[in-house]
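SLC13 family permease: structure, please.
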Amino acid sequence: MSWDLLMVLMLLGVCMVLFVVNKPRMDVVALMVIVLLPLSGVISVQEALVGFSDPNVILIALLFVIGEALVRTGVTFEVGDWLVRRAGKSEMKLVVLLMLVVAGLGSVMSSTGVVGIFIPVALGVARRLKVSPGRLMMPLSFAGLIGGMLTLVATPPNMVLDGALRQEGFEGFAFFSFTPLGLLILAFGIGYMVVAQRWLKGAADGGAVVPVRRGLSHFIKEYRLENRGFRLRIGAGCGLDGKRLDALNLRREHGANVVAVERAGRFGHVLLNPRAGMELRVGDVLLVDFSQEVKIGGFCEEMGWELLPMKGGYFRESWNEAGMVEVMIAPESPPIGKSVQEQGFRSRYGLSVVGLRRQGKVFEGQLLEEKLKMGDVLLVAGPWKSIRQLQGMAGDFIVLGLPPEVEDVAPARDRLPHALGVLALMVVLMVGGWVPNVIAGLMACLLMGLFRCVDLAGAYKSIHWQSLILIAGMIPFAQALESTGGVGLAVEGFLGLMEGAGVRWLLGGVFVMTALTSLFISNTATAVLMAPIALSVAKHLEVSPVPFAMVVAIAASAAFMTPVSSPVNTLVMGPGNYRFMDFVKVGVPFTLLVLVVTVLVVPWLFPL
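Here you go.
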């Protein structure tokens, strides 16, 4: 073993450990790889940066934008409404339709995004059918993962393997190359989940159903807000006329959130969004939520404010202008690891955080200072306009259904036909092969912007830069393993272990290696590392590499076994009231089923 190979393997081992502990973030680790490999002399700077010019990396970024356009135009919400109407009161019909719809949408947009959109839909149907959300959440996540097996552009690993084949001089995959096998796995998955959902702890214990369209009264009761809200008027003698709101330090010193400001206007009062730089006026009425116990009489005397009566408690008389909504922290979004104060939530989103639910329980500590975690559910309050705007920020939060006090609208719903037409055009161009896939994606993004299905700011915000940098950073790693003989060593070890086995057993071995690796690192990084190994095994056996590439792609998406093997699984864990072993109990048998189906069908679809 050469010194260069030893250095690359040591670096790979360190990266895998960092991926597992997720410190630092995976994209930071990938950037470290780009820096360290050229410094070690194993590859050149140009080779280390080749991932940023890979067409598939660009295409993945474009697909994030197209997915955002589908959300903003209401395509996904319309599909959800259709699902609710068609399912009726049949739980089995609901599971079948839910998995079909989610997998179908997941074939052209991010599976994490699709599952995030359909969590509120599934919760609402669970409430109407009076069943536990645990019966629906895992079928939802499994369908999202299977959606990645349906088309070439469904998930990054598919495009990574396609790029690896083309780099070796082979034809690569067509848009629908994955579809026959993916549909077969989807059929088995639907049948399996119809039976397996009954094994789930969340389904068996009749756990509490979390309704999607609970009214504001439900939020007040659940988060114990009844005695926390007050209407306070600024008096003439308090010396605050013209003073900025942030200069009062209400949150830091008193645990007070200003939800809204009532100000006298020409035709009555108007409700204003309480921005940090707002200048207060005498006579302004502040709607204040106290996250900690306060003696309101003493507070008003200290500030020189007047306590006003409220009808019905907690700002009910202002519900025509302001309200509340629950949002879930999305995977790897900026708020994770920061407190509400550090995040500057009100300045950034125009809303105040008034409640926190973690693992199904309402948090009762110092809310504003608590570090947020993935899967946390925040109750936010403020003007309906800001709440509607938050609904379109799918990269940071997942809105768990708007309350019935506000109409559920998408920011660009009138552009829905245009979005569907552009999506259809992109698919036709990719299937027909008239232009390269990345050009078809670029054309679709430009048309989405031209038809105002997505704005420029939303397009850039929708791109999951961490995933792109991770892929771009791991591509030179695979090249370094190839040039130093690491791939050859891995192939020799694998063939030695599988000595005398038939080709189907070798395909099964590649599947197992890929699936086990994806338990510890992302499926995209797994695909990048396993691609050269799988292709080298095929070359050694003097058979077509296409079946081996297909097996790696399918295995990389088969992240069913644990709640942390995919962000999709992590998202549904809280709403489904699942435990770690629920995924093991249901996911391991299904992964074995996918293994058997893949090994039997792939050589038939793609002859060796």
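Notes: The first strand starts at residue 229 and ends at 234.
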